[in-house]
Amino acid sequence: MTDKESKKNNKKHLNYKVEALWDQKDKDERKKIMTFAEGYRQFLSTAKTERWAVDYFEERAKAEGYVPFEELGDKGLQAGDRIYFINRNKAIMLAQIGRRPLSEGLLLIGAHLDAPRLDLKPNPLYEDEMMALFKTHYYGGIKKYQWLTTPLALHGFTVLADGQSQKVIIGEDEKDPVFTITDLLPHLAKDQMQKKMVEAVEGEGLNILAGGLPAKKDEKAEERVKRAVLELLQDKYGMTEADFLSSEWQAVPAGKARDIGFDRAYVGGYGQDDRVCCFTAVEALFSRKEVDRTAVVLLVDKEETGSDSNTGMRSRFFEHAIAEMIYASLPQDELIPPELISRRCLFASRALSADVTVAIDPNYEGVLDKRNAARMGYGVSISKYTGSRGKYGTSEANAEFVGEVRRIFEQAGIHWQSGELGKVDQGGGGTIAQFLAVYGMDVLDCGVPLLSMHAPFEVAHKCDIYETYRAYQAFLAASLP
């Protein structure tokens, strides 16, 4: 192309403009969008906790030829190997070893498996007015009123006194009972409705209705409804009340994810923040037969509460896994200390922080700067920064790396848009990008726009889901200097 032709071509693209994705797709691509979204919808219906999501991805990984790292034995890591690490059944890292040495860095996609929910307290079960109830402690940023009068399922993991473990899922099968939190009738809600929304429902008021039939009458027995529930748990799961102390039970919206709209354009369901990015990232990794740089998908826990704990992004799980990979890939006569190579690897890595962002909602568009907001159905969204009120709690991507990702996407024909998490001073939030950035790697937030984020029923556009999958594919396959 001559300089004159180049200038003429550039003038055609002077303005930044994005277009609705469906119009850009032919019949075959539209079919792929719908097929991919159906697989995602089924995943979303079953993987309702971080534990169940890890179980799902481990099963998928094994089917794709991935093996646990500890099963490598003495053979070491070679280009083309497919491995995974699991951290306490709540976080997982999958890696496909590339042709380049690990010291030249990774191509990493990091997302989080946890989602806002209601956790049962350590000593949750009590009786009042011949009703058995569970005390809860909400997890993550929720609007408490959204969880009232909603059918809930219980997803639990219990370690019994003898060390045996029990998996508990009640409320997902059509034959199962469900649970709920009651609300005050409007006839008597005069005082409640005068309150601010944040004050109308107290955290200690999120008590789940769990039973109402008493145990066999006994003059010495007290709290007979509570006892009846304990007898049911004993009969089915071998539990006593003390076993709740070594349990993790979560209350989540009951039922399957669903298509939304006459045209089935959207997927609606619980936990799409951030399992939509987890699913698309893992499927993108599985689609790669070989990679230049080692490709890694890291799915962690506890993002919704600050990424703490030994399963969150602030733990050393990621570092430990990389160090193990480095050591397993070194020749026996390597003179450079593995710790130094690990540091070089992390510093040279490029990462996408795969997390959802807010999309323009016609009902609430006033909270967004429309010139800098993502739109439903316009493709994968990138965000240079998140944070709040002066960019606190964020990692801001450098211009060089944003340019690099742009070129990867455009060369692969990816339809992308730029988004921002609300107007300045409106609020905001963070992702795991800031915790990846501490290693010195380049990081950019990149994911699916959502409506009703953190609600019991979130909404994603099928076009955006599929295009995010394609974007992650292109990133993991990139040959970068």
Based on DSSP secondary structure assignment, what is the total number of beta strands? 22
Task: Tell me, briefly, the overall form.
Answer: globular
CATH C-level of the largest domain:
Alpha Beta
SS content category? alpha/beta
| Mean of all residue-level pLDDT scores | 93
Distance between the termini: 24 Å
- CATH homologous superfamily caption of the largest domain: Zn peptidases
GO molecular function, one term: metallopeptidase activity
Protein name: M18 family aminopeptidase
Family: Belongs to the peptidase M18 family.
Keywords: Aminopeptidase, Hydrolase, Metal-binding, Metalloprotease, Protease, Zinc
Considering the chains and any ligands shown, give keywords for the structure:
481 residues; metal-binding; nine-stranded mixed β-sheet; Aminopeptidase i, Domain 2; aminopeptidase; zinc; Aminopeptidase; alpha/beta; M18 family aminopeptidase; globular
Written account of the structure:
Keywords: Aminopeptidase, Hydrolase, Metal-binding, Metalloprotease, Protease, Zinc. This is M18 family aminopeptidase. GO terms for molecular function: aminopeptidase activity; metallopeptidase activity; zinc ion binding. Its cofactor is Zn(2+). It holds the Pfam family Peptidase_M18. With 481 residues, the protein is α/β, with parallel strands linked by helices. It has two domains: 3-115 and 270-476, 3-Layer(aba) Sandwich (Aminopeptidase); 117-253, Roll (Aminopeptidase i, Domain 2). The chain contains twelve helices and 22 strands. The protein has helices at residues 3-12, 27-46, 50-63, 190-194, 197-200, 224-237, 272-286, 317-329, 338-347, 399-411, 433-437, 462-476; strands at 67-68, 82-87, 91-96, 106-112, 117-128, 131-139, 152-159, 165-170, 208-211, 247-253, 258-260, 266-269, 294-300, 350-353, 357-358, 380-383, 387-388, 416-418, 428-429, 442-447, 449-451, 458-461. Strands 1-2-3-13-4-14-20-16-18 form a nine-stranded mixed sheet, with helices on both faces. Strands 8-7-10-5-6-9 form a six-stranded antiparallel sheet. A five-stranded mixed sheet has the order 11-12-22-21-15. Helix 2 packs across helix 12 (462-476), helix 7 (272-286) crosses helix 12 and helix 8 packs across helix 9 (338-347). The longest helix is centred in the first third of the chain and has 20 residues, at 27-46. The mean pLDDT is 93.
